[in-house]
From TrEMBL, chain A:
One of its GO terms (molecular function) is voltage-gated calcium channel activity. Residues 30-39, 67-76 have a biased composition (Basic residues). Residues 77-87, 94-104, 112-126 have a biased composition (Basic and acidic residues). The keyword Transit peptide does not apply. Residues 134-143 have a biased composition (Low complexity). Belongs to the TMC family. Pfam families: TMC (PF07810). It is found in: Membrane. The chain crosses the membrane at residues 256-279, 338-359, 429-450, 503-522, 649-671, 692-713, 749-773. PANTHER family: TRANSMEMBRANE CHANNEL-LIKE PROTEIN 2, TRANSMEMBRANE CHANNEL-RELATED. Residues 1-143, 831-903 are annotated as: Disordered. This is Transmembrane channel-like protein.
TrEMBL record, chain B:
InterPro entries: CIBP, EF-hand-dom_pair, EF_Hand_1_Ca_BS, EF_hand_dom. This is Calcium and integrin-binding protein 1. GO terms for molecular function: calcium ion binding; magnesium ion binding; protein-membrane adaptor activity. One of its GO terms (cellular component) is perikaryon. The keyword Ion transport does not apply. Coiled coil: none annotated. Signal peptide: none annotated. Keywords: Angiogenesis, Apoptosis, Calcium, Cell adhesion, Cell cycle, Cell division, Cell membrane, Cell projection, Cytoplasm, Cytoskeleton, Differentiation, Integrin, Lipoprotein, Magnesium, Membrane, Metal-binding, Myristate, Nucleus, Repeat, Spermatogenesis. It is a lipid-anchor. It comes from the Eukaryota. It is found in: Apical cell membrane; Cell membrane, Sarcolemma; Cell projection, Filopodium tip; Cell projection, Growth cone. GO terms for biological process: angiogenesis; apoptotic process; cell adhesion; cell differentiation; cell division; cellular response to growth factor stimulus; integrin-mediated signaling pathway; positive regulation of calcineurin-NFAT signaling cascade. PANTHER family: CALCIUM AND INTEGRIN BINDING FAMILY MEMBER 2 (PTHR45791), CALCIUM AND INTEGRIN-BINDING PROTEIN 1 (PTHR45791:SF3). It comes from Trichechus manatus latirostris (Florida manatee).
Amino acid sequence: MAHKPELGAPQMAARTSVACSQLQFPGDRSRRKTSKKQTSKAEGTSGRHRAQSGQKEEAGGNLRPGSPRRKQSERRRRQEELGEQKRSPAGRNLEGRRKRDGKASFRGQRVPPEKEKEVPKEETWKQLKKHRSTSLASSASGGESLSEEELTWILEQVEEKKKLIATMRNKPWPMAKKLTELREAQAFVEKYEGALGKGKGKRLYAYRMLMAKKWVKFKRDFGNFKTQCIPWEMKIKDIESHFGSSVASYFIFLRWMYGVNLVLFGLIFGLIIIPEVLMGMPYGSIPRKTVPRAEEEKAMDFSVLWDFEGYIKYSALFYGYYNNQRTIGWLRYRLPMAYFMVGVSVFGYSLMIVIRSMASNTQGSTSEGENDNFTFSFKMFTSWDYLIGNSETADNKYASITTSFKESIVDEQESNKEENIHLTRFLRVLANFLIICCLCGSGYLIYFVVKRSQEFSKMQNVSWYERNEVEIVMSLLGMFCPPLFETIAALENYHPRIGLKWQLGRIFALFLGNLYTFLLALMDDVHLKLSNEDTVKNITHWTLFNYYNSSGWNESVPRPPLHPADVPRGSCWETAVGIEFMRLTVSDMLVTYITILLGDFLRACFVRFMNYCWCWDLEAGFPSYAEFDISGNVLGLIFNQGMIWMGSFYAPGLVGVNVLRLLTSMYFQCWAVMSSNVPHERVFKASRSNNFYMGLLLLVLFLSLLPVAYTIMSLPPSFDCGPFSGKNRMYDVIQETIENDFPTFLGKIFAFLANPGLIIPAILLMFLAIYYLNSVSKSLARANAQLRKKIQALREVEKSHKSVKGSAMVKDSGYTLKGSSKNATQFQLTKEGTTLHSSSQSQTPDQKAQGPGTSSSAGRTSLSTTKHIPVSPPPRDSGQPLPQTHPWRSASGKSARRPPPDN
Amino acid sequence: MAPGTVLNGCPHILLPSSRGRAHKRFCELLPPNHRSVEESLQARVPFQQILSLPELKANPFKERICGVFSTSPTRDSLSFEDFLDLLSVFSDTATPDVKSHYAFRIFDFDDDGTLNREDLSQLVNCLTGEGEDTRLSASEMKQLIDNILEESDIDRDGTINLSEFQHVISRSPDFVSSFKIVL
């Protein structure tokens, strides 16, 4: 069985049993025939008698020589004996073949054993049928089902076959073989599955099997359907084939983000906006749902709507529109509660999905820590991207692989000698200083602009630029700072990979700093508004009071209520925050699209068409085509998502806008990439940084959670707008619900759960669990390293033994040729070999304990030692070229290639 | 007989839709008068035809890939089953083990079951392309191969065998995502 690389244990067992049964078949058949005759004869005489009682039949059967049970056990025994005999000669034959044509093709080695195997299989069939027919013959007369052992045997076989069917896909076999194997296995299972049940159970069993089969088929169809439903698959594949997997990974990330946003959108839309629109009070019924009188004239102007003022501000898209009524509509839907819970679950769901995808990403790569050990091998074996179908990309890839090879070689050579370390250090410090200056400057600029915009917002008649200053400045900073950073980073002279990480980290810091300065400025604004709230409240009360109590009205007729548009109201800070985020998102989207249009598309057009009449080659020279900036795009996407998370609590419509944005940018960017970008000069893999991006997303999620949590926990909601108006804090809505809608004992339980005495131990417990798991993984890694070392040491010893022996053989042959007096040296050498060998054995007592055959003759040792190497599977079609039988080739070749290590 | 009826229950992992697509693509490679379903399932397409597929055209291992998957005795043509085999190994759903097994066979240029120095240097030449400027010098090549053997040749026998190869590959984060061909 030396030809199967991926044999699982069950298959191995099945195959050996198959081979064995073939061997003992001829004799068995004759015996069976006789037994059959005997049975029929016996039936003739005492068949009816036995037919009445099963026990009797069995008892009698045991006496007869050809009874199924006896036969079975006998065959088993013989199988075992013969199996061993058969297996070893077969293996030896194979090995012999391998040696004879050492360099024969894989296929050449693979085919013959397959044939060997096919034959026995068929024979087993016949045999099995015979076997069954005999047993059936006897049992049919006896009205008795199969004997226990037969049943268990068939059961085992069926289970094996089923396992084979299930794991068929994971076998590296050619299709024809898979097909034959599968058909055989299926036929077998189908035939014998029914036999397993007894009597009435038989039908039930068959039925259950049928249903299971149907279920499997349904699951498969459903899986196919699901994969067909994945959107943009072909688009992404197209991009993949043009640009390699790295650019496509951005689009896959975009699609993933779209899915997440779709879920968030469904959550918010289905649980907040639709109930409010359907069941809440209609527009114009209360002040918070009406445009104030002063704004009414302009409320429908496009320029006002574009700024999310006017009618849009007083719509269900923003926080302020919602009423603080506890229940709405005939469903008695608790909208404030739902609003709060959805706000929380948006974060909960995002957190969960990000962490889950991170975990599934890490599961693919088994151990991150060991990656550094295989830099060269990874470059060698996994650097080619098989998706590339474009010759231009392929050329780029060749070039990038070559440079990476050369780079790593140079790295390896020069890792020791650091030249002028002081200059490098100085430059790095300088670069970091410059970049920190840039960051601080951009932060200050944003703070300044936001402050100024608050002054502008108080003024009337502000120009378009003054109104949109914040967004413009933020977008410009986002556009120009990254290239500036890149220029500064050139000073540092880092390795490109490390440089990329630094660059990403700096852009991240820039975005984050900008976002947080923006937030701080916004928070100042909020505090200002909150401090004004009391006066506004008084004014409102005063107006209403005056209105109802004013003289000059007929006292007998009650006055109609004040029109909601006339009621003075406070500046709803939540809506203001929501509007800021909304505007930021939209302007971000526009800037992205305009950058793509100008920077990519127009540039591509210019380069493409002006190239005919230009003095130098535009395509190859200076402007050239744009490359797709993966990291910048991914970071932009991540920050956009951060803004969505932050803003969605105060502007429920924001997620809807974001879904639209992602949808359009999917199509737009796909088009832009295919039409006007060229593949990267340095093609790097994105999957390596996939989790890096996910980690950034997680960080952004956490950072965007903070301000929202802060506002919910510590700021009082506005008094006249939003679902929580009139409450002291937003989370009071939970308490309210627990008190009013739940039975009292539940309230007590919640109070108990919220007790710090319970929460602190729980947190401690979690920390302990983390610590424990961490230490476990560390110790496992250590064990891994130790095992590796052990293997290496073992192989060293074994190899030195081999090479010594091999050279002895070389000498031996030389001796016979030359006939000189090298007897003594040779003797010495062999002696050395044996001593070495014995030492190798004494070094590995545990292996010896595992395999008692290890301590046999010197010739077998190397084979048996290789057998017991724990990690590497037993020598199959590759691996060790079987040294003891072919010492010539392997040993001499090896000693030529590499000097034997001296112990 | 529709291709579906022939192919249903096949143990390969392609979806029915992609199976149909594969069959269509395969038929396009056949001469026009042999495009019936029956014939296409029997026919063998010579390598030149397969290599002209746009998905394989830019691949430096295209000859090797065809060679590994071919079942014909002269190993110069692919039947539809071989073609499906190829696609299923390079599909998303193939397990990493299967993928790495075939990758090993693709990289094993002389088909002797191990990656020795000649295989590795041929592999490097494939990866660095045909151009003179991208080729590595002899000393660089030696250095590179030494480093690779240092890393992956766990048992220090001077060659990389399948299990060592799979050991390395299983730790690679990109392999499964890049060892893919989509029609």
